[in-house]
Each structure stands twice: as structure tokens, then as C-alpha cells.
């Protein structure tokens, strides 16, 4: 399967939903095509449901990571730390936005009377700032994971990430703080919840650029990773090697391609609707449907993270070697990295860190 044509078709498929939006709905107006009761249930039930599922998924990853740490009594390997870190950002975002929507949903009578239903000031401004901050965390962390994997696999450059992987977290935290702090007046009450104000075009432009750059980064990194795996396979095919070695390389390529497509597809499903939503707001176009789903689709990242984790580690934790073969091979690979031994374990690094 060619990666770029596949991703191009996915993006076109998502963008095609623009043609399904009626022109009379995509107008600069605050009105909704639904009555108040229906609008209330659509606006609040969908996001609250998605955030609740996302929170349960992050708690599941927290629990599995704790069991792994408790069993090994040492640092968790990198391929299991990355899903854990993504779960942290998803947990922070979904927990805050769940409070955000739940508070508004508790004021149903005010909503039906067209009264303000959001958190009072300054809590509303703090809530909007925090939601933007944690979404920035998530976007930048996905980019950082792809860059780290690219450095290890393609450039064969191994470096210590420091205690608690601060060399990854520190730049992410700094950059994530710069974006919302540069637009402090952009947060406050909207019609349904607390977030970026409709007239705050600066924050929408920043997120548009950030999402496009991150998507370009993960495409660049993961395409290079797949190219490297294919080159290694071709080099091994030109020399005498056993059938087992050849089958092993084919399995690595298939497994890596599956993981790469999952990561990129989840990111596209998460943030392409956000790009569309930001374009609409920059063009002063209000659309009810896009506005409702944009908060929910970000949760697809957390849900996809859980699905990926279960596929790699199994649904239930087992201390036996049945579901931990990948973990054992990666543990050996990381031990070899620590003593700068030969490159014979690069395949296991590729398999588990992508």
C-alpha cells in the first residue's frame, strides 16, 4: 500500500463533508436549524459521551502502565511511555472539557431561555485558556514522538531523554504556554461553553499553522521510517540470508506500516475537522454541525491511543511471555543502546518505537 495516495484519499474524504453543509446553515448567524430542545441534546450529549469514553480509556492506560511498572520495578520502556504520555494529555483535556460541558448542561432552563449558561468569570477565562493549553500539549507531543522515533530509526541517533524524559516535556511545555499566553484576551464565554471567543482570530491562525506543521512533520518522519525499513529489507535480500530472517523483516515492515497508518490516520481524524472549523471562523462563517463535532473529534486521539495499546499489549495484563514478546525484544534493544553495541537490534527498535 502506498502511504501518500492513501492519506491523500483520506483527507479528500474528510474535506468532502464540506459539500454536505447547506449554504443557508453556513451563514454568519447564531441561529440553529433545530429547535432548542434538540439543539441542547446534540450540543451536550455528543461531547460529554466522547469525553467520558476518552477518560475511561486514559484510566485504562494509566492502570496498565502502573501494573507494568509494579512488575518490573524500574523505568518503563520508551514504546510504553509514549502511549502513557499521550494518555496524560488526553486525560487533562477531556477532564476539563467534561467539566466545561457538564456545567453548561446543568443549566438547561437557562439555555432554553437564551440566558448565559457558562462558568462565571474569571473561571470561564481560565477554563478556555486551559483547554487550549492541553490541546497544544497533545499536538506537540504527537510531533515530538514522531521526531524522536525518526532520530532513533533513520538517523540512528540515540540520546538520553533525562529524568522523567524532561528533554521531551520541557520544549513541549514552553511552546504550549507561548501560544495561549500570547492571546490572553482571546478566552471567555461562547454560546455553549468556555473557550476561544468567536472574534479571536489570532488563536485560530496559530492553531491552523500548528496543526499543518505537525501533520507535515509526522508525514515526513514516518515516511522516512518506512523507507528505511524497506531499504534494510532490500539490503538483506541482496545477501544470503535464511528464510526466517526474510520473513522476520517482512513482518517488521507490515507491523510498522500498520502502526504508522494508525498514528497518521488518527491525527487526521482528530485535527482536520479542527482545521475546517478554524477556516470557517476565520471566514466569519457559523456552522452548527462543525461547531458541535469539533470538540468531540479531538477525543478520537485518546480513543485511538487505547485501541493501539490494546492491539500491541493485549486487553488483559499478563505477566507471562505470551503478550510481552515485543516488550522483551525492546528491553533487549534499549539495553544494547545503553552500552552502544552493534546495530543488530535496530529491527526491534523500529518495531516497538514507531
From TrEMBL:
Compartments, record wording: Membrane
Membrane-spanning intervals of the chain: 7-22, 42-63, 84-106, 126-147, 168-188, 200-223, 260-280, 286-311
Residue stretches making up the G-protein coupled receptors family 1 profile domain: 53-309
Keyword Membrane in record: yes
A GO cellular-component term linked to this record: plasma membrane
Protein name stated in the entry: G-protein coupled receptors family 1 profile domain-containing protein
Pfam families: 7tm_1
Record keywords: Membrane, Transmembrane, Transmembrane helix
Major subcellular site: membrane
Amino acid at each position: 500500500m502506498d502511504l501518500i495516495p492513501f492519506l491523500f484519499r483520506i483527507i479528500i474524504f474528510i474535506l468532502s463533508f464540506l459539500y454536505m453543509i447547506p449554504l443557508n446553515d453556513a451563514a454568519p448567524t447564531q441561529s440553529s436549524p433545530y429547535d432548542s430542545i434538540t439543539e441542547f441534546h446534540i450540543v451536550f450529549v455528543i461531547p460529554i459521551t466522547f469525553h467520558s469514553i476518552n477518560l475511561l480509556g486514559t484510566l485504562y492506560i494509566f492502570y496498565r502502565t502502573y501494573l507494568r511498572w509494579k512488575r518490573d520495578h524500574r523505568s518503563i520502556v520508551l514504546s510504553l511511555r509514549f502511549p502513557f504520555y499521550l494518555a496524560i494529555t488526553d486525560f487533562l483535556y477531556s477532564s476539563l472539557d467534561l467539566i466545561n460541558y457538564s456545567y453548561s448542561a446543568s443549566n438547561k432552563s437557562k439555555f432554553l431561555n437564551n440566558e448565559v449558561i457558562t462558568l462565571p468569570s474569571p473561571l470561564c477565562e481560565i477554563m478556555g485558556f486551559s483547554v487550549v493549553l492541553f490541546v497544544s500539549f497533545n499536538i506537540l507531543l504527537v510531533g515530538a514522538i514522531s521526531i524522536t522515533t525518526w532520530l532513533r530509526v533513520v538517523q540512528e541517533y540515540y540520546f538520553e531523554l533525562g529524568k522523567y524524559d524532561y528533554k521531551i516535556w520541557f520544549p513541549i511545555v514552553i511552546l504550549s504556554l507561548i501560544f495561549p499566553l500570547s492571546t490572553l484576551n482571546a478566552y471567555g464565554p461562547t454560546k455553549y461553553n468556555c473557550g476561544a471567543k468567536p472574534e479571536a482570530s489570532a488563536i485560530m491562525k496559530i492553531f491552523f499553522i500548528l496543526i499543518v506543521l505537525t501533520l507535515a512533520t509526522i508525514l515526513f518522519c514516518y515516511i522516512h521510517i518506512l523507507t528505511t525499513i524497506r531499504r534494510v529489507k532490500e539490503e538483506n535480500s541482496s545477501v544470503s540470508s535464511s528464510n526466517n530472517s526474510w520473513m522476520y523483516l517482512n513482518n517488521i515492515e507490515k507491523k510498522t506500516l500498520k502502526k504508522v497508518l494508525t498514528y497518521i490516520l488518527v491525527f487526521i481524524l482528530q485535527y482536520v475537522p479542527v482545521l475546517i472549523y478554524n477556516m470557517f471562523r476565520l471566514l466569519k462563517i457559523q456552522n452548527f454541525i462543525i461547531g458541535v463535532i469539533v470538540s468531540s473529534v479531538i477525543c478520537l486521539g485518546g480513543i485511538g491511543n487505547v485501541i493501539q495499546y490494546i492491539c500491541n499489549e493485549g486487553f488483559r495484563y499478563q505477566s507471562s511471555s505470551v503478550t510481552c514478546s515485543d516488550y522483551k525484544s525492546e528491553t533487549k534493544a534499549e539495553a544494547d543502546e545503553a552500552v552502544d553495541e552493534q546495530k543488530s537490534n535496530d529491527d526491534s527498535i523500529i518495531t516497538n518505537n514507531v
